[in-house]
Amino acid sequence: MTKSLTGKTALVSGSSRGIGRAIARRLAAEGATVVVTARSSGPTSAIRGGDSVVVEGSLAETIAMIEVNGGRALAIPADLEDVDARDTLIDRVVEATGGIDILVNNAGFADYSTIDKMSLETFDRTMEHYTRAPFVLAHNAIPHMRSRGAGWIVNIGSSTGLSPIRPFREYNKTSGDVIYAAAKAALHRLTQGLAAELLDDNIAVNAVGPSTAISTPGADALLPAGYETEPVEYLVETVLAMCTVPADEQTGLVAFSLHFPWHQGLEVKTLNGQGSMPRREPPAWANPNIAPAGL
């Protein structure tokens, strides 16, 4: 392991399971002190088709996985839909660790529904998670990053935020991902605009999304039957690549998990940093609007 993040502090939202947990583990394996956060310290409920279902995973489990690998992590639970919890999260991270160098906006809410059937509550919660929460956390982290002379913000995007494949597939007609996709498109644009604003502060802002989809406890119910998913390690390695390069060398990218490592020739490590994954070429059926080097 290169331990490229030794001395750095990272906050990863939505890190009690799935993509967030994987990112937290990889950043910790590279030496970062990782603050993990989620709505609660234990399993939580998620909305699927209007029904509440229990989604397994906990911050304690994430910390245990990091510590068994020799890493350092601590948990600060925060419901990002709670105004006070959201507004004070960065200050609590800084108070607990002394500063913040890396912010990964991963936490989300997704309950797919076609627009004619979607409730206004679902619309509002989707936009809250993918636009307001990243804005607030970045807004509050920027002064601390400026004081350190550098920083890295990574927003977790999605290929759904790109123009859909034409002619429209049956999936686009029925999946109900339009509002989720619109929120992710907004997050991509926020990323690129904020990157320009913070370039002279040496704060890099990039987005990373799956080239296809990643199987997680929260996402599995949203994926069509038989959909070919990808291992999370490729996305995680792409996130790491966005946390180690100065802003004047790499900022404002919307990159994708299989395309970017393949194009850049990156070695993709396992989550504990101790093994390597095979080179994996992006599938031919991935969204053709994905730029291999990032948008």
TrEMBL record:
Gene3D superfamilies: NAD(P)-binding Rossmann-like Domain
Pfam families: adh_short
Chief localization: secreted
Catalytic activity: a (3R)-hydroxyacyl-[ACP] + NADP(+) = a 3-oxoacyl-[ACP] + NADPH + H(+)
Tree of life domain: Bacteria
Keywords associated with the record: Cell wall, Secreted
Compartments, as annotated in UniProt: Secreted, Cell wall
Annotated Low complexity bias: 283-295
Domain named Ketoreductase: residues: 8-227
Spans annotated as Disordered: 272-295
Family label: Belongs to the short-chain dehydrogenases/reductases (SDR) family.
Full protein name: 3-oxoacyl-[acyl-carrier-protein] reductase MabA
Biological source species: Rhodococcus globerulus
